[in-house]
Amino acid sequence: xxxxxxxxxxxxxxxxxxxxxxxxxxxxxxxxxxxxxxxxxxxxxxxxxxxxxxxxxxxxxxxxxxxxxxxxxxxxxxxxxxxxxx
Length: 86
What we know:
The protein is of the alpha+beta class. It has one domain. Helix content is about 35%, strand content about 30%. It has 4 helices and 4 strands, in the order αααββββα.
C-alpha cells in the first residue's frame, strides 16, 4: 500500500544520501567549538585552510580568526581537492 502523503513519508524516512548529508552536517558542528581540529594544508597563500575527515569525505574549511570559519566544500576522499581550493 502506497503512503497517502508521499512527501510526509519521505520526510520521516530520509534516503541514504539524505542521511549522509545530515551526518556530515552534524560532524561539521564540531568545528564551531574546535575550529583548529582539522589537518592544516601547507600551501602558498597564507590562508589557514584545513581539512576535517568524516568517513570517505573531507570537509575543507577556512579558519577566519577566533571561532569563525567558512566551509569551502565537502569532497569525496578520492578527489584531489587541492585543485579546487588553491
